[in-house]
Write a structure and sequence with these properties.
- The structure is a single chain.
- Helices cover about 10% and strands about 45% of the residues.
- The chain is mainly β.
């Protein structure tokens, strides 16, 4: 049996050659999950290299270059992995976690759990390391002078 092929013009071949890589890039683009939160359904967006959704347990697992944006709580986060437990309303971050809140407060740790309903973070360091948090504290000054002098603090000792 002999197959007949119609000749494809050079322009069509060039067009296909240019579109194929674009189609491949589109299919390899970073996955994005947007979770809806109850009580107003505000978006929580997670971007990562790979994502899985467990419909039975309602858990989203994101791995590789994880970026989370939660505008309703003014929170941005990056990590190696994140899991959003929608039933428990909890997000577990692991691997080089950095969380930034509007206003400049931030946390760096190996593992961080964010309890959404409580608005609470629980951070754990790597072995033999510490968690680092930076909090922006409003310093009330009157006429360039602080109300009360700051107490003397002991010298910082490194635990390395």
């Amino acid at each position: 049996m002999m197959l007949c092929h119609k000749p494809i013009s050079k322009i069509r071949r060039l067009g296909l050659a240019l579109l194929a890589p674009a189609a491949l890039l589109t299919s390899v683009a970073l996955p994005i999950a947007t979770a809806q939160t109850p009580g107003g359904n505000r978006p929580l967006t997670i971007r990562s290299d790979i994502q899985e959704y467990d419909a039975k347990n309602q858990v989203i697992t994101a791995r590789g270059n994880v970026q989370m944006l939660y505008p309703a709580r003014q929170i941005q986060a990056t990590s190696t992995q994140a899991q959003y437990f929608s039933k428990e309303r909890r997000i577990d971050f692991s691997g080089n976690v950095y969380i930034l809140q509007q206003g400049g407060n931030s946390i760096r740790a190996e593992k961080v759990t964010y309890l959404i309903d409580e608005g609470r973070f629980v951070a754990l360091p790597q072995s033999n390391r510490q968690v680092e948090s930076i909090y922006m504290v409003e310093d009330s000054e009157i006429g360039g002078q602080a109300n009360t002098p700051a107490p003397k603090t002991p010298e910082l000792r490194r635990s390395n």
